[in-house]
Design brief:
Chain lengths: 375, 217
């Protein structure tokens, strides 16, 4: 279990973060320059925080109050650097065996051989890093870090050096290796898909602060603030006025519509009537009412709205439609009110290229309310 | 013809280069990798011998190591004479050439990605081991190039040597001093021979250095 609570002031930047993680994969997610890598460097002992405390299980790495500051050499963490930082003057085998000091030559070779085999790098022992593909370099970097049997694996933007087509493949490979080794891992990334796929828990960073730390599914569906929602790329982030709130439902007034949203029972969030409340609707969760079927059933179709498609973007396998409600006043997002994501098949079957006027419905479970800023 | 100045110069330059390496490599590493108070001052001090007139440098050096100087007096008590011996010539050559080695090695160390050194640390290697297994192997070309430059500079040392070691034939008369002496004595044939030896030796060395650029680690 990693427990970290540190502050560090640099020219033009200050880091002040606190989070904990169990024996699993935790991702530090946030925009570039948010302090994620700095946190990793503090954790590894490469940068000294001004104050705070860092522990791993019952080992204290850093404690400014007690004057403890273990050297990186004594922390035994497997640090995989951004761009891998393989030793260019050493072979694959020498790279992997680099941390195996205090053992006989045969023992080092044997251990390196076993690791290389397990990572699918057998036969490349005598190659130099510049002769390897991106995927092979990643595996050598992981092998070098794992060789010392680290207590914790640290991955700094492991896939940022790789081109997009290969990234997906390497991400899957990385996920497989992490799971196979079963190592507690801290992963730094600015790519939400990467964080979501590889991690169990996500810590959201912005400007040197932690905005939210939560299991990944909770983060995706229950961001605790508008800022987090923006950082994780939530679309259709809107603002309504509270009409009524109960522990079960929250009623909102938005664009002359009355929307009903499920109140998350865990939050017990009861904003007063009249309060401005941010909420979001995922574009994939907007339903279109088919005109060739009987009229909408009030039990299945709630939050019914009429409007028209005012724009669209071809995403390859889906269409993004920009939907404007048929009411007076300024739309919620520029020239449109809602983004709607529709599979290509549906778009074609319903002949949406010609037919632009639609009735939509949003299930009350698909409207996520956010605590308003400062609440 | 007397070849003593050639052998003396070779011996003095080799000793001076060894001294330069011993002091210059740690100094270069310090300047490349550590931030400390007085770092800028130290860096300026290292370059100073390149800029100051050699006779001025030699004059101050003589003040320090001469019989009346603080170091010279201490050495004299220990029964060791420095000024106007071949050892003074070694010191002169080292002082005159150390900047070339330090600057070249420092630039070499600075091009080594600090993350490689950090990686070595997280893998349990001591600072000493990090230097020998990562920093130096990645910067050795710059260190070697600086060493050769420093050696060549040591071979050509004139002004400082003249001030602190004198121009004693058969004792402290190095190659450049000998050439100067022959020209003064109008022995142009001998001056010519000695000059050619100097040019040939240095040219071979510099050619070797330029070849280094093509080698990988």
């Amino acid at each position: 279990m990693v427990s970290l609570s540190i502050a560090k002031r640099l020219p033009g930047f200050s880091l002040d973060v606190r989070w904990e993680a169990g024996d699993q994969v935790v991702a530090l997610f946030g925009p570039n320059g948010a302090g994620k890598t700095l946190t990793l460097q503090c954790l590894a002992g490469l940068v000294r925080p001004d104050r705070g405390r860092i522990t791993l299980g019952d080992r204290v790495f850093f404690d400014s109050a007690a004057g403890v500051d273990l050297r990186p050499q004594d922390r035994r963490l497997g640090y995989v650097f951004q761009g891998y930082a393989l030793f260019p003057h050493l072979t694959v085998e020498e790279n992997v065996a680099f941390g195996l000091t205090g053992r006989s030559r045969e023992e080092r070779r044997e251990r390196a051989r076993i690791l290389l085999e397990r990572l699918g790098l057998a036969g490349l022992e005598a190659r130099y890093p510049r002769e390897l593909s991106g995927g092979q370099q990643q595996r050598v970097a992981l092998g070098r870090a794992l060789a010392v049997d680290p207590h914790l694996l640290l991955l700094d933007e492991p896939l940022s050096a790789v081109d997009a087509p290969l990234r997906r493949q390497l991400r899957e490979e990385l996920g497989r290796i992490i799971r196979e080794w079963g190592k507690a891992t801290v992963l730094v990334t600015h790519d939400l898909a990467e964080a979501y796929q590889l991690a169990d828990r996500i810590v959201v960073y912005e400007s040197g602060r932690v905005l939210q730390a939560a299991p990944k599914s909770e983060l995706l569906w229950q961001p605790t603030s508008e800022r987090v929602a923006r950082l994780i790329g939530v679309r259709n982030l809107l603002k309504g006025a509270v009409l009524k709130s109960t522990p079960e439902v929250i009623q909102l007034r938005w664009r002359e519509q009355t929307l009903e949203a499920v109140n998350s029972p865990s939050r017990l969030f009861l904003p007063p009537p009249g309060a401005a409340l941010p909420f979001f609707i995922r574009p994939e969760y907007v339903r279109l009412i088919r005109k060739d079927r009987p009229g909408p059933d009030a039990h299945h179709h709630m939050n019914l709205m009429d409007g028209e498609i005012v724009g669209e973007v071809d995403q390859g396998t889906t269409w993004t439609l920009f939907f404007r409600l048929g009411v007076a006043g300024d739309p919620g997002q520029g020239i449109y009110d809602l983004e709607i994501e529709v599979p290509k098949l549906v778009y074609e079957i319903l002949d949406m290229a010609r037919d632009r006027r639609w009735q939509i419905s949003i299930h009350r479970g698909s409207i996520q309310v956010l605590p308003s800023e400062g609440a | 013809m007397d070849f003593f100045p050639v052998w003396l110069t070779l011996r003095v330059s080799l000793a001076a280069t060894a001294l330069t390496l011993l002091a210059g490599v740690p100094l270069a590493w310090l300047l490349a990798r550590r931030r400390f108070a007085g770092r800028d001052l130290l860096e300026a001090l290292v370059v100073l011998p390149l800029i100051l007139p050699p006779t001025v440098l030699g004059y101050y050096l003589l003040l320090v190591i001469g019989r009346q100087g603080p170091v010279g007096r201490g050495l004299a008590v220990a029964g060791f004479e420095l000024a106007f011996t071949w050892r003074a010539a070694v010191l002169a050559a080292a002082v005159g050439s150390i900047a070339l080695l330090v600057k070249s090695a420092q630039a070499g160390f600075e091009t080594v990605d600090p993350r490689l050194e950090q990686a070595a640390r997280t893998l349990g290697r001591s600072e000493w081991s990090v230097f020998w297994s990562v920093t130096l192997p990645l910067a050795w070309r710059s260190v070697l190039a600086g060493t050769v430059l420093a050696f060549c500079r040591a071979v050509g040392e004139f002004g400082i040597t003249l001030m602190v070691a004198g121009n004693i034939p058969g004792k402290t008369q190095t190659l450049p001093l000998a050439i100067y002496d022959r020209v003064q004595a109008n022995a142009m044939g001998e001056a010519n021979a000695l000059a050619l030896i100097a040019v040939g030796g240095v040219a071979v060395l510099l050619f070797g250095v330029s070849r280094l650029g093509r080698l990988k680690y």
